[in-house]
């Protein structure tokens, strides 16, 4: 089974808590990203919740290239987001990409959230990781 599918299945089966195949706890959301062909890609991504919004970063594990779902979020005005709960809840969220100082400040928060994000900077070849606000 594909790695992301394992995460999605564990998320849905355990109220949004994922401890296999990696330890994420309840720090993920599942974003339903529209693709150009009209289908939906479900992307499990780390999220920081603040002021009624969830922030997600397109780190792609430190790849020098953006994950494919970035382009779908950039085209979308709204997306469905599955959030932890008992049961998992799906909410509709407005999509906004952060820029400038706001983006930079949130990137610092992601690095505090998990040291892995700081490590990604070393392998991303200077790529600036897109960050999106998903607000209900």
Q: SS-based structural class?
A: alpha+beta
Q: What strand order characterises the main sheet?
A: 1-2-3-6-5-4
Helical percentage:
25-40%
Task: Please report the distance between the alpha carbons of the first and last residues.
Answer: 32 Å
What is the strand content?
Answer: 25-35%
* DSSP strand tally: 6
Rg estimate, integer Å:
14 Å
SSE diagram, text form:
Blueprint: H1 3-13, E1 28-34, E2 40-50, E3 53-57, H2 69-75, E4 78-83, E5 89-97, H3 100-113, H4 115-123, E6 131-135
Antiparallel strand pairs: 1-2, 1-4, 2-3, 3-6, 4-5, 5-6
Helix pairs in contact: 3-4
Q: Could you explain how this protein is built, in words?
A:
The chain has 136 residues and is of the alpha+beta class. It has four helices and six strands. The chain has helices at residues 3-13, 69-75, 100-113, 115-123; strands spanning 28-34, 40-50, 53-57, 78-83, 89-97, 131-135. A six-stranded antiparallel beta barrel has the order 1-2-3-6-5-4. Strand 4 and strand 5 (89-97) form a beta hairpin. Helix 3 (100-113) packs across helix 4. The N and C termini lie far apart (32 Å). The mean pLDDT is 94.
């Amino acid at each position: 089974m594909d790695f992301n599918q394992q995460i999605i299945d564990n998320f849905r089966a355990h109220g949004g808590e994922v401890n296999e195949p990696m330890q994420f706890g309840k720090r993920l959301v599942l974003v339903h990203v529209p693709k150009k062909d009209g289908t939906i890609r479900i992307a499990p991504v780390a999220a920081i919740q603040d002021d009624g919004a969830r922030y997600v970063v397109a780190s792609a594990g430190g790849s020098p290239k953006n994950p494919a779902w970035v382009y779908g979020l950039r085209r979308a005005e709204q997306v469905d987001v599955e959030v932890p709960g008992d049961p998992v809840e799906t909410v509709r969220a407005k999509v906004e990409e952060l820029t400038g100082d706001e983006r930079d400040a949130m990137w610092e928060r992601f690095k505090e959230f998990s040291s892995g994000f700081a490590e990604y900077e070393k392998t991303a070849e200077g790529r600036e990781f897109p960050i999106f606000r998903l607000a209900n």
